[in-house]
Amino acid sequence: MEFIDYYKILEIDKKASQADIKKAYRKLARKLHPDLNPNDKSAQQKFQQVNEANEVLSDPEKRKKYDQYGKDWEHADAFEEAKRNQRSSSGGRGNIYSTSGGGNEDFSDFFESMFGGGGYSGGGRRSTQFKGQDLNATLKLNMLDILEDQKQTLDLGAKKIRITIPAGVEDGQTIKITGYGGEGVNGGPKGDLYLTFEINNNTPFKRVGNDLYKNHIITLYDAILGGEIEVETLTGKVKLKVKPETQTDTKVKLKGKGMPVYKKKGAHGDLYITYKASMPTNLSAKEKELFKQLSELQ
Questions:
Q1: Could you tell me if residue 194 is inside a domain?
Q2: Which of 80, 107, 189, 226 is within CB 3.0–4.6 Å of 244 for a Cys-Cys bond?
């Protein structure tokens, strides 16, 4: 397997912090995203490499293995176990496998001998299977897109997959799609695809979990005398009755008018409307006189 320099792919130094890695990944992912380069196979391949590099370097444990074992980092646990077994069988007299040298050392010969032909069973060559590498991808959606389940085609560069996205997914939520990662080793199972959602809120509502929040302006007269108003929801306008002497910042709950609950068919959060009373402007002399009379009554 050819060595892939993940640091070079993300255009960062080997001493980069986790914040540096995150910043570099976001910058390159935006630049190379398939949506912005629909007919550029090279950009799509680089986008996949950037996701792969981020998946390894953003995980401190995987990064540590990568730094030490390079392209063979996914087999690091097997290598360490083999070292322990070797020390045990040799009575602790030495270690035939040196781990000095960091990520630039090539352990391929060891893995080939251990897992590609390091023993026989029933007259045949024995090989150990390993799961393929997991991949990361990002999917951008608008909030109005996730009010119902929807199907999407994901372009992973080398292949396309069709998935159903459950209604109500949240911004930053990651789901696992089993078997759509890298190829396994020695016939091992494929890795998994971890899909992270970026949800753009293209609505006038603030989302907190499954609930929605919105301020609604009411007139001073409705606040004092009461009345009927119309407010927006995700599914259209509804009429509400404002009680007389309603104070500004009064909050009312519209049950079931929030976001759909993830993977709970028919379940929804709530919508909270906060009333904000507006003061009248450009009063006529008559109106000012009436307010003065009201103030004297108080």
A1: yes
A2: 226
List, as one string, the DSSP characters of 95-114.
-SS--TTGGG---HHHHIII
In a domain, 127, yes or no: no
In a domain, 298, yes or no: no
Strands annotated E in the chain? 120-121, 124-125, 135-142, 150-155, 160-165, 174-177, 193-200, 206-208, 211-219, 227-233, 236-242, 251-254, 271-278
23 shares a domain with 70: yes
What's the pTM? Answer: 0.55
pLDDT digits (tens, 9 = 90+) for 132-176: 888 888 899 999 999 999 998 888 777 788 889 999 999 999 998
Query: Looking at residue 189, which CATH number applies to its domain?
Result: 2.60.260.20
If one counts the domains in the chain, the total is 3
